[in-house]
């Protein structure tokens, strides 16, 4: 997949967003259609389509996305409970084909998810 995704445009500052966190490997910003009081999207600063398409050389970027989640939980003071979701593929609800972690917090989350 070579199309420029919306998240690459956000990363390149071609599209505005509300940033929450940034480091050498990751960038995080508020979801434009929040599904919880806190709904942040964490993306790697490298184009990875999704978990299914990951290559071994992407492992550090993917791991850094999880580490960024820990930092965001501290920044937003929600380290007592948050949910991380990676939608992988259309059937799982992925609509943007650039790896992203949904960081959700601020309400109770039921299980199983929908
Ligand atoms: P997916 O369905 O691929 O797992 O999640 C894509 C997410 O990106 C959705 O929650 C959607 O609301 C969010 N999103 C799509 N376009 C934009 C955008 O231009 N800006 C922001 N901030 N979020 C977006």
Structural overview:
The structure is a single chain. This protein has 114 residues and is α+β, with helices and mostly antiparallel strands. The protein has 2 helices and 5 strands. The chain has a 5-stranded antiparallel β-sheet, with helices on one face. A hairpin with a 3-residue loop joins strand 1 and strand 2. The termini are far apart. The model has no long low-confidence stretch (mean pLDDT 96). The site of guanosine-5'-monophosphate (5GP) has 14 residues, from strand 2.
Summarize this entry quickly.
This protein is an alpha+beta fold and 114 residues long. The chain contains two helices and five strands; from the N terminus they run H-E-E-E-H-E-E. Strand 1 (19-22) and strand 2 (26-30) form a beta hairpin.
Low-pLDDT residue intervals, each spanning 5 or more residues: none
Shape field = globular
Order of helices and strands: HEEEHEE
| Fraction in beta strands | 15-25%
The spatial strand order of the largest sheet comes to 1-2-3-5-4
Whole-number mean pLDDT: 96
In whole angstroms, the N-to-C terminal distance is 27 Å
- Which structural class matches the secondary elements? alpha+beta
User: What can be said about the biggest beta sheet?
Assistant: 5 strands, antiparallel
Count of extended strands:
5
What is Rg? 14 Å
**What is bound: which ligands?**
guanosine-5'-monophosphate
Question: What proportion of the residues is helical, as a percent range?
Answer: 10-25%
Assembly state:
single chain
Count the DSSP helices: 2
């Amino acid at each position: 997949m070579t199309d420029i995704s919306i998240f690459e445009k956000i990363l390149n500052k071609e599209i505005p967003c509300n940033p929450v966190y940034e480091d050498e490997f990751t960038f995080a910003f508020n979801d434009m259609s929040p599904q919880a009081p806190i709904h942040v999207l964490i993306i790697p600063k490298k184009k990875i389509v999704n978990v299914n398409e990951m290559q071994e050389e992407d492992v550090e970027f993917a791991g850094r996305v999880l580490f960024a989640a820990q930092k965001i939980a501290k920044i937003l003071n929600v380290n007592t409970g948050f949910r991380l979701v990676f939608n992988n593929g259309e059937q799982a609800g992925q609509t943007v084909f650039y790896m992203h972690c949904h960081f959700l917090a601020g309400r109770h989350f039921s299980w199983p998810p929908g």
